[in-house]
Protein 1
Amino acid sequence: MNAARERIREKKRIVVKIGSSSLTHPETGDMDYIRMEKLVRELSDIRNQGKEVVLVTSGAIAAGRKVLNCSSLNGNGERAMAVKQACSAVGQARLMMTYQKLFAEYNQVAAQVLMTKNTIVDDLNRYNAHNTFSELLRLGAIPVVNENDTVATYEIEIGDNDTLSAVVAALVGADLLILLSDIDGLYTDDPRKNPEARFIGQVDELTKELLDMGKASPGSPVGTGGMNTKLIAARIATKSGADMVIANSRDIGVLHRILDGEQEGTLFTAGRDENFNLREFVERLHR
Ligand code: GLU
């Protein structure tokens, strides 16, 4: 077994992020309860192994849109923003209700934490959030985190949950971040368009070339597509001393295989940078 993969078996504080597309059925946009249930069972089992777990979950806006029947209202503008925020208010509560219920079935306590950019940029907020996470983990609860989409507008939002999960990993001093997504990991190119695209199993240095590759392909669902936010997350996580793995959520069992040191997804190995300042990094996001 590769040494870096072997070290994953020793990880103690783990942040797992799952995206909306992994939690909903593509055909209907409704919640995929089987996937959620498997996720909760895996996370509960990781807790039972004596490890600490934080879940960063999307899906609030998607769930709310469904409940309020406003799937047609997309785009920008004040009204669209208000609709999105209203949807998240409804959807976040639904999402949390489902997580509470599922975690309770496995005898675990889920705790909701909603954050914005200000949670990190403001010194007192950051200090308080850090203390809250520490206390929740000490008490054995599983923090379930999302952006506070109901109040977060452009100026104060982190914007996407890939970045948010890395920020959380840095804030709580996690030693591993796992991004569960609808892609297998990092490729040299978009595998849908280029059959020559090679899969990259491990990244030890985030070179400028890699970061530029991510920038060139924002938003696409497969291959290097949508890699930009994942590479930003990798920068935050690795500089703060956490390994990061991008893996496909198709089979949620991938979580325990990663923790067993198996060669799943793309591993970005940690390279702590003492000069990395989380507050400054977050402050510069979207500027
Ligand atoms: N916070 C958003 C939601 O819960 C999702 C953001 C993201 O997926 O990056 O719907």
Protein 2
Amino acid sequence: MKRLFTLILPFLITCALVVACDRAETPTASNTPASSSNPSSISAIPIGIAVAQTSNVALLGQEQVIGAKIAEQLFNQKGGVNGTPIKLVFQDTAGDEQGAINAFNTVITQDKVVGIVGPTLSQQAFSADPIADRAKVPVLAPSNTAKGIPQIGEYIARVSAPVAVVAPNAVKMALKLDPKIKKVAVFYAQNDAFSKSETGTFQETVKAQGLELVTVQKFQTTDTDFQSQATNAINAKPELMIISGLAADGGNLVKQLRELGYKGLIIGGNGLNTSNVLPVCKALCDGILIAQAYSPELSNEVNAAFRQAYVAQNKKEPPQFSAQAFTGVQVFVEALKSLDNKTKLNTLSLEQLRTQLNREILAGKYSTPLGEISFTPEGEIIQKDFYVAQIKMEPDGNNGKFNFLK
Ligand code: 1QQ
């Protein structure tokens, strides 16, 4: 019995991979399990994209969907994984932990993906990533910047540089623009893991720069009324305010601070790093500083192709979240290619493929829209260049853009 199991098991696992691959494509007669013993029947390699397509968090997740789809198209045009196309499988995480858990379970168990790009929030990653890690499915976090993400497990790496590296750049830029800044107020969403992590970095940076932290105000990402926090902060007379929250709440907080008469500089954290905040604070978004892990101007071949495809489709420059999601897919494609060059993918069971792919991801070096990147053995991104942008609104308040500062 045991022997039979040993003989059959590899066959079953191979079938699982092949069937999963076939499911990602339109089924045809040649895609039936009968042909699955022939590995050449793999028609496309499924990669899971588990990000927020609904809820308030979709303000951020929408940009990830766009970036991932451009990557799918571009890399498939270039022959996919040594001739086999990839197929992105999208599962909506919505904005909370349970949504992310459900999406991860679906892509792992039902869609049988080789790896996952997702989820959108660190708050979701701390709940969903352990599921992928236990299932030994590699995850590339496209936008999980809180402290501790790669440490969730062996199978978790990120293409989104941590707040500890990115956020201080915004404070330094604020001081460059206004060297007279002395007093700083910070705000953060206390129900969000990323916001808590980011405010920690901002508060440390403020102190390290010799500035005075005059007040720390808390809110919830679901809040819409910030009158009491905004009034408290204004009363402390800061010359700089720093907000760690998400797009809708963050945008509303900016709006209410300006309406109450605050005139100084405002730094928005990564949760405000999308043009989807512009309709929230309109003309009052003008001047917000936001640190960036991506610049459309980065000069390399893959960014040129990504940027061109993005601009053609969206008539504006690509945002960071699209570039990072693109990069997540790119890393999967390149790691799959390099694994296939060593061991033909169609000779591996799904389980073997996922494990070996994880090793390959961590060992590689990639030329991406974010520049040259690689990973520490723990899965932390190693990235060189960071930037700061400032929102510039047109006077009508209906249009605006992110200007990259020097
Ligand atoms: C995190 C983030 C979010 C603001 C990105 C969408 O950086 O949750 O870690």
